Please model this.
Amino acid sequence: NLQRTNRTLQNSFLENVLLPDIDYKLWKISNPSSSKLNRQPVLFVPGHRANADLVRSLSSSMHDPHNEFQFFTVDFDEERTLLHGSFILNQAVFVNLAIRKIHQMYRKVDNEQRLIVIGYSAGGIVARTAMLLSNHPKRCVVSDLILLSSPVSRPPFSAEPSLELLYKEVNKAWLLSFYNTSRDCLHHHISSSSQSTLPLAANFVCPTCVPKLRVVSI
Model:
C-alpha cells in the first residue's frame, strides 16, 4: 500500500513555491509484515504525466525478495512535466524536500545512510535539476542516481523554449561541477528569453555533491 509520509511536507512545498493549485505528495511503500524501515531508502521520481504507482513494479517481491529496499515515490499528480521548464523546477524543489524528509526518517536508525534516487523518463531531468538547487541537502545524502529511459542531452520534444534552456544550463552546471573552484560554477543563474510564454529563473548553486554520485543511465 501507498502511505503518505507527512502531510506537512506537501504544505511546506506549497508554501515554498507559492503554487497552491498544485498538489504534490510523498508516498512510502508500506510493508504489511513489518512497520520498520528497510535498510536502503530509494526515492522514485516519475516522468511526464506518469503515475506514481509505477513504483509498485520496482518494489515488488520479485525484484526485492529480501526486503532490502525501502521505496518512496513523489507524486506530481500526473503533471505534464515537459510542457515548460518551470514545471521541472517546481518538481525539483519538492524532490529536495522529499530527500530531506526521508533522510530525517532514517537519522534515528543510521545517520550515515544515503539514498538511491531513480528518475524515470522526465523524472531524470527533475532529479538532476534538484541537485543544483539551493534547497538540496548540503550533506551529500544521495549515493546513486539511476536514470531509466531518461533523455539526458536534450528534451525529447521542445514545446517551449524554456525546456531547451533548462536542459542546456543543467548539463552545463553538471559539467562544471567537476571544477568546483570555477567562478562560473559558483555563480550560475538562468532566466528565460522573451520568447518564453512563462517566466523561468533559477539560481544554481555549485553542485558539490554531483562528483560524489554514482550515475547509471539505462
User: Anything to note?
Assistant: The first strand starts at residue 2 and ends at 4. The first helix runs from residue 7 to 17.
